[in-house]
Amino acid sequence: MGLKTSLKKFQDDKFGMFIHFGLYSIPAGLWNGREPQRRGYAEWILYNAFGPDIPLKEYRNLAKEFNPLHFDADEWAEAAKNAGMRYLIFTAKHHDGFALWDSKVSTFNAVRATPFGRDLVLELKNACEKRGLQFGVYYSHWQDWEHPCGGLPHWQEISPRDNRQFDQYWREKCLPQVNELLDYGIRLFWFDNWCKTPNLRYENLKELIDLVHRYDPECLVNSRIGVTWNAPELLDAVDYISMGDNEFPKEKIARPWETSGTFNHSWGYSCCDYSWKSTAYLLQCLIRNVGRNGNYQLNVGPRADGSFPPPCIRRLREIGAWIGSHAEALYGTHPMKQPFEPDFGCLTESPDGKNCYAFILNNSNDIPYYFFTDRPCRSATVLETGQKVDYEQDGNGIGFKMPRETAFSIYPVMKFELA
Ligand code: GLC
After folding, report:
1. Distance between CA atoms of 353 and 235, rounded to whole angstroms?
2. pLDDT over 90 for what percent of the chain?
3. What is the DSSP letter of 375?
4. What integer pLDDT is reported at residue 39 of this predicted model?
5. Alpha-carbon span 76 to 127, nearest angstrom
6. Which of 201, 282, 344, 348 has the fewest Cβ atoms surrounding its Cβ within 10 A?
7. Does residue 99 contact residue 55 with C-beta atoms inside 8 Å?
């Protein structure tokens, strides 16, 4: 059976932007000028600093400060597009329960509870669609620290084992909000669960997956809705597999899948997280995933004023520049069948099978590289420059040597035209 049209497109798109933005972007990892004792992602500050430090009431008050005057949906979408990204997934509601659209279900949202008073989900959706980017949302279904019954409430009086309580949250907030998002025209969902939990039972998960697919069978749902850990029987009911945070599988996976990764450590903006990864490393993550049949979704945590942190801006531009001259080797391609993964990096094939592309991640100018094919080669060139590549064909495949001039270039790609 072929893939759903929407899923095929998602898979062809290869590269997307994730954005974590919400009330947590204001404290940016610090509460009263200090990092909480329990350290972790900045978007977890309510959880990590709770106890002596952040009562829920105080956290809720952040809504009164939420006023990202530099937020410009067009600018965000443009940055994603220029980076070579073809879709964008935005935190419509994270674990803190704060909605970034005009939710009628809960007034704890960006339109009703803040001086900003704007609907970020709608603005971003429009900005993305104007540019042909697919727009999707992250929706925290399993945890909602604002709703009294919303899961993992280690400071609340509710046992997370009490399913009846959780079901109250499920019916009062989760399902109606997902319905609202469907009504908004959202057709790509990124749900988030990563461990076994008594709250997400088979029935809940089935109900949520069915709700979305009944609304529109082309609507996409990821595996982190919780099926892996809590209802493996439903693995086939979800559309694409989401890896763990920054988790990169070592081999090809047949089903459509993606890794969500960060530029540094935190997802939400953290003013004390300086562990920025290099552009070369981030590109390598993308290339490896594409070579293993997967997507890559790279996260930006905008600052409280709605601007992207400068280290992200630079890396996005650099990644976009590289993709700009290697686009045909990425989008719409699939990994080329080989008996084992090539030592130089990865190999993709154009949809019509006429060209194949060798991404050189270990650039050695001395050792010849080799891949398997029974089709005669017509020409071999460096994709970016058109420079000829020396190659030899035998009964099993093609051996080639990197031109000396590519020694210092980041991830050159060789294009082979096959007859
Ligand atoms: C984790 C975190 C969350 C983040 C997500 C992104 O599950 O709980 O804060 O949104 O990963 O992959």
Report:
1. 31
2. 86
3. S
4. 82
5. 8
6. 201
7. no
Torsions phi, psi of 114, nearest 5? -130, 160
CA 45 – ligand 1 centroid, Å: 13
pTM of the model: 0.96
Using most ligand atoms within 8 A of CB, pick from 41, 145, 298 the residue to mutate for ligand 1: 41
Give me the count of residues in the chain.
Answer: 419
Q: What does the pLDDT average to over 8-16?
A: 98
CA dist., res. 85 & res. 233, Å (int): 33
Ligand 1 in reach of 152 Cβ (< 6 A): no
Q: Sign of the CA dihedral 148, 152, 155, 157?
A: positive
User: What is the pLDDT averaged over residues 242-261?
Assistant: 97
Contacts of residue 49, Cβ cutoff 8 Å, sequence gap at least 6:
31, 36, 37, 38
CB 15 within 8 A of CB 282: no
For ligand 1, is residue 139 a contact (CB within 6 Å)? no
Q: Which residue's alpha carbon is at the smallest distance from atom 11 of ligand 1?
A: 245
Closest ligand 1 atom to 143 CA: 8
**Cβ within 8 Å of residue 231, ≥6 positions away:** 200, 201, 202, 205, 206
Look-up of token digits 């995933």: 289
Residue 192 near ligand 1, beta carbon < 6 Å = yes
* CATH fold of the domain at 5-329: TIM Barrel (3.20.20)
Which residues are CB-contacts of 243 (< 8 A; sequence separation ≥ 6)?
A: 249, 257, 258, 259, 260, 294
Q: Is the CB of 218 under 6 A from ligand 1?
A: no
Q: What is the largest CA-CA distance in the chain?
A: 72
CATH architecture of 334-418: Sandwich (2.60)
Q: Which of 142, 94, 143 is nearest to 121 (CA)?
A: 94
Kindly report, as residue ranges, where domains of CATH 3.20.20.80 are found in the chain: 5-329
